[in-house]
Amino acid sequence: MANLNISFSAQETTLGPDSVQISELNKNFTVETPTVTGGATVAHTVTKTIFTGAAKDSYFWLKMTGDAADTGCVVDVAGQPAATLRSGDFCFFRVPAALAVTVENKDGSSSSTVEWAAWECETQVAR
Amino acid sequence: MASIKTTLSIIGTSASSTNPISITPTAATITVTDPDQTGTLDVSATGVSGDEQIIIDPTASSSTAMGATTAGSWVYLRNGATSGSSLLKVQAYLKAAEQAGGAAAMWVTICSLKPGEFMWYSPVNVTDGGTDIKRGCKVVNSTATATTCEFARFNR
Fold first, then answer.
1. Which of A62, B60, B62, B91 places its Cα 20 to 30 Å from the Cα of A37?
2. Which CATH class is domain B33-155?
C-alpha cells in the first residue's frame, strides 16, 4: 500500500473577472503497488492497447508527447471513446477495474507517441 | 481567447521500493476560448430529482454556452464531498457504434469519482463523432448520499 500525493492546478491568464484558478494541492490518494508505467508509439490510423487494466480501479495519467500532425488521438476505455488529446496534452482520470485503455491515432499519415502511468486504487467502486 | 497553464504532480510515498513512480510535474499550456464555466452543482441522492447534472449538453447547439463544440472542451470534475459514500459517475454521450449499450446514441459511464477525487480530461469532440451526434458530459450520483460536483469547462 502506498500514498499518492497529487497536486493539480489550472491557472488562467486573462484579464477580467472570469479568470479561472483551480488548485488541488497535496491531495492524498491511497493506492496499491506496484505502479505500472509505459510508453508507446501509435502509428497513423492505428488503435493500440496501452494498458490492459488492473484487478481494481486505477488512477490513470496519460500524456501525448508527440504528434507531428497534431490531429490528435482518441483515448478509449473498454473500446469506448473517453477523451481526445493533442500533442502536449495530458489527462488524469480513474479507470474502472479490468478495463483496457487504448489510443486511436486519428491522423492519416503521422504517428503519435504517448507516455502513461497507472496506480491501482485501494478500493474498487461500481462503474 | 485565453491561456491556461495546467500542472499535475503525482508523487508516490511509501511506495514499493521496486517500482516507485513519481511524475513531477506534468505541465501544459492550453489555449481556450470564451465562454468558460465553473461552479458547484448540487447532485442529489440517486432517484431524486437533480441526481444528475449535465456539464456539456449534447442537444445544445455549438454556439450555446453549455453545448458541445466542434473543437472540443477541457473539463475538470471533482466529487465535492470530503468523506462519506457518495459516488459520482462520469458519463459521455456516445453514438451507437461506439458503445454496446443500445442501438442509439446514449450516455455511457466512463468512470466514477469517490469523495475528494477529481479528473481532468478533454471529452471527445463533435468532429471525432461524425455528424450524426453531438457530444456530452454528465455526472450522475449513483448512491443514496447527496453530494456536489465542482466543475470547470473550457472551450478549446
1. B91
2. mainly beta
